[in-house]
Amino acid sequence: MEFIFYVMETKVSMRKNFFKILFLIVSLGLAIRGGEIVVQAGTSQQDAMQEARDGLAMAPDNLGLNETQFSYGDFSGFGSSARNSAILQNSSMHSTGTSYDPLMAIRMTNYINQEGAIWSNVDNGNYVNINNKQTLSCWLYFGPSQHIHSGDSFGDGMAFVLQNPANGISSFSHNGTTIGTGETLGVWGMDTDKSIDSIQKIADTAIQDSWALEFDTNANKSKVSNDDFDDESDITGQHIAYGYPGDASTYVKHSADFIGSSNYYSMNHSGVRNITTLHDGNWHHLTVSWDPTTFRITYKYNDKNLDGSKSDTPLISTSDPVHATEFGGKSAMTNKLQWGFTATSGSAYEPNLIALESIPSSVEGTVTSDITDNTQNRTFSETDTNRNVNSGDSLSFNYHLRFDSGENKWLNDVAQITFPSNVTFKNGDANQVLGYVTYNDGSDAKAEPIYASEIDQDTGRLKHSIAKDLYVSSDGTYRPSEATITVNGVANDVTSTTKVDSVSAHFDSDNLITDTDTPDFTIKKAKAIGLTLDQSNLTVDNSHDANITGTVSYVDGSTVNNSDITVHENLNGKDLATSKLDSSAASGKLNLNIPSADLTQTTNTLKVYVEDADGNVSTTSTVVITKKGSLSLKVDDYSFGTINQATASMLIPRKGDWNIVVNDGRENGTTNPWHLSATTSGLYNGDTAFNGNLVFKNSSGSEQSLTGSTGVNIANGYKSADGNQVTNVGKSWNDSDGILLKTTGFNSAGQYTGKMNWVLSESI
Q1: 311-328 per-position pLDDT tens digit
Q2: How far is CA 154 from the centre of its chain?
Q3: Within a domain: residue 11?
Q4: Which pLDDT tens digit goes with each residue over 471-507?
Q5: Residues 247, 198: contact at Cβ < 8 Å?
Q6: What is the 3-state secondary structure (H, E, C) of 198-243?
Q7: What is d(CA 563, CA 612) in angstroms, rounded to the nearest whole number?
Q8: Residue 679 has pLDDT above 90, yes or no
Q9: Residue (of 663, 539, 529, 553) closest to 594 by Cα position
Q10: Do 536 and 476 share a structural domain?
Q11: Do 259 and 406 have their domain in common?
Q12: Would you say the pTM of this structure is higher than 0.85?
């Protein structure tokens, strides 16, 4: 608490004389202990308050603290002087109560001889579910690099704690009614009672059935004062480490090593990471995650910058498997762990501040980003090695949001997207639409447009409120659980290869704050590539392949590497398999062979373009390939006569003329015969099959069924005249031969239809 009496200046007029009465500033530092207000002398407390104020004023965007989800540590059992210093404050050092304020932060301690604790309210759905992936994301602040009162020391830090919920909110280091201070950080055992000669007794004074991650700003290495928890060779100063506070194996007993000293204890730290300084005047990001498949806890420190972008130098550490026995066993804890923070200070002080971005059990959500190069028809993320695009390529920047688990919906999410450099974001239509939000609930893919008007003119960032909350309904169906934000742009025309750095996108909601970075990528200067074919029209013999030649070249005259050039072909509307230029041929030499069997039409259209390894694409060239002397077949629709009643084995004649015309345009003198065969899958009236078969009856009276997969030879012919020789196979049939319909039983009234498959071939 801080009371300040302000200067007041008053002017008093007495005739023509003016007097100024100046009241002096009186600034008192006040602290509450045991219900009494105690004035603490010196400037250090005022400095401490100012340092906390400075840190709070710089607090990053955060969720604040909903007091229905959290509980302050209960110190009522630790003596009348024990007070929980943890409090929710804004930048003015005022308590914010329960109202929502995005600048809220938790102040754990800020002056000497303080203890603070805050715990998740398990009963209100705030816990770590060990059966699910869980993530805590927050910012930590440990004070400036140097105190305002430069002679003062920093200490002692704070700890993130997971514990058995049965321990409750009164959990804190204590020995009887004596509360832990200094090196305990409120979670480790106490080594202040010199009469204790048992490791187990030290462990008993810690928070039981717990796991803790400490951020220790004061290396404790004093044997004389029983303040030696950090007496390990690998601890050089301020550090981060983790362990089991209530486990006796965490502590090491040391016998007195000089006259007049007593036994003392140190700690076995796990995962020690020495930090040059935790208190540097900056907020530091922390992510703690639980993996339900490996039972391991991973923490990432300094994994995100203040602007939301990913840090290049995060400190990452993963624990050994953590089993339920460490928290008292499954029977004692079910699947829920209580989490919280503890902090202490002794003769040194610092502002220990926390700003939360996510609450594990509330919403577990994931955001990722990738880029689609629409011109090159490929999508890449930061893990892909080829992240090159060309000048002028159409690009889509995609942000994928996925609700993984949680007690609540992912509510009121607002995306704030920073645009990368050297990309022009254009509206796609007259309505100034830059992109869309799509969901996995089956709704219209373009139901939620993103407009150019949503770009902030001051910051240049796109700010879009996502219309739908993300969640998984109680019955396990998606309602929706995923959203994809797509913003479209075009890579600028660059004069040289240009690196485009990743930029962050910030997602701010009522119950989750998270960020993602776009992949960095490279824009390559457009390199115009040309394709010149030696033929635009080509005529080939009926049994011969078509050979297409040409040249690939760069407009700037640079050398073409054949192995880098992909050839794309489309014949008669069908894409063929891609190929490469022959690496053994001259640079840029194109040589294509189109098999005769693929030239199925009298006039065939081949379209060709080439693409290099960087995605530079040529224009499309076209060749018309005409088959000289080819066979062709033309048939009309045909039908059978109408009958009123049919008996088994009855032959139904054709109706009208059946024109089945073979055009033999092969070269004069061709001696190879042609063959015409046919098959059918039958006749149907809707789903009802006709009881009978199509048959072919030759002039000698022999019948063959056309139903099946094996073609029945209908006619044969030879080239016996010059030029085009036309044979109408149907004209040679009379009423008793050719293709007829034969019944095999009674048929319901109706119209029956089917398809005939014809094959005209040439044998050698």
Answers
A1: 999 999 999 999 888 998
A2: 40
A3: no
A4: 998 887 888 999 999 999 999 999 999 999 999 999 9
A5: no
A6: CHHHHHHCCCCCEEEEEEECCCCCECCCCECCCCCCCCCCCEEEEE
A7: 9
A8: yes
A9: 539
A10: no
A11: no
A12: no
